[in-house]
Amino acid sequence: MDAMTSPSVTNFNDDGSLGGVLAELEPHDDKSLVIEYGGRTIQSGYHVTEVKAGSFVTLDCGGNPDQWHETILQVEDIPSQDGREFMKVEKFRKILAQVATKIELEAGARLTFEVGVPGTPMQVFDVHALEIDGERALLRLAPRPAICKPRHRAAQVANAVSCCASPVKSGCCA
Predict the structure, then answer these.
(1) Which are the contacts of 50, defined by CB distance < 8 A and separation ≥ 6?
(2) Which residues pair with 75 in a beta bridge?
(3) pLDDT in tens, 97-129
(4) 170 and 155 assigned to the same domain
(5) How many folded domains does the chain comprise?
(6) How many C-beta atoms lie closer than 10 Å to residue 132's C-beta?
């Protein structure tokens, strides 16, 4: 009797780091890397056109300073010109390793994808999940929403306060 196996899924909770994603991909070098973004599957000829290593220092609308590192992969969504299949995970990892010999890529940096079809505006995505199934590694991207950081932080605090005020503690006040 054949045992059915379900896909292995790693959720990054919209906060995947470069090192975290590469570590999850490493054991799957022989699989095809398929990217899903904006309700579509990328075409098999997709091309990593640029890798950016950025360091950001910001001030939000509430006057709060912030800083972080980010690795931005710019990906062109194009069909295969020669009928080839999707890029293998190994090739994707080698591309980033080659880049790392010329510019510093910080493992803990937030990983961002800028993806677009030629002639259309690029869209910005965060890494959401990695699903390993059969012969492919499916990297699911989620759109990055615009947020007002002070309002977002205030909502999180209000949620924690209402949770802690509840007679039934659910772990949010630990």
Answers:
(1) 72, 73, 74
(2) 48, 115
(3) 999 999 999 999 999 999 999 999 999 999 999
(4) yes
(5) 2
(6) 18
